[in-house]
Design brief:
2 helices; 124 residues; SH3 type barrels; 6 strands; alpha+beta; six-stranded antiparallel sheet
Length: 124
């Protein structure tokens, strides 16, 4: 029987089918893919991970916090990683590994998260 976490823990850039229920308001709901965005040191030691929800909907406007994925890379359907829909979930909500982002998309996602969180704008 294959393990849910091939490396022993979910890793940044891996895509999992996540159970987001129960949800409220405008939160993403139901079973949907999401990308692990938290640092691997945290993912290894914590019972939780931070994920960015994904949708099959391609927004009509290009937002800097979103990352678009073409069909077949790495999921069957095209979709969008929603960099502003971050949520901390218990690892038990990660139902099944669906694949992983190529390194170029992990870098693009890093830029999208910096835009969503205005990381460059934080002053010491």
């Amino acid at each position: 029987m294959p393990t849910k976490f091939p490396q022993g823990f979910p890793q940044r850039g891996e895509i999992y089918l996540v159970d987001f229920d129960p949800s409220r308001g405008s939160e993403q709901a139901g079973m949907r893919p999401a990308v692990v965005v938290s640092h691997d040191a945290i993912n290894r030691s914590s019972p939780t991970v931070v994920v960015a929800a994904m949708t099959r909907t391609i927004p009509t406007k290009d937002y800097p916090q979103n990352v678009h994925l073409e069909a077949g890379s790495p999921l069957k359907d095209a979709g969008t990683i929603l960099g502003a829909q971050l949520i901390t979930v218990d690892k038990s909500r990660l139902v099944r590994r669906r694949g992983e982002l190529p390194p170029s998309k992990v870098r693009e996602l890093g830029e999208a998260l910096r835009a969503a969180l205005d990381i460059r704008g934080i002053r010491q």
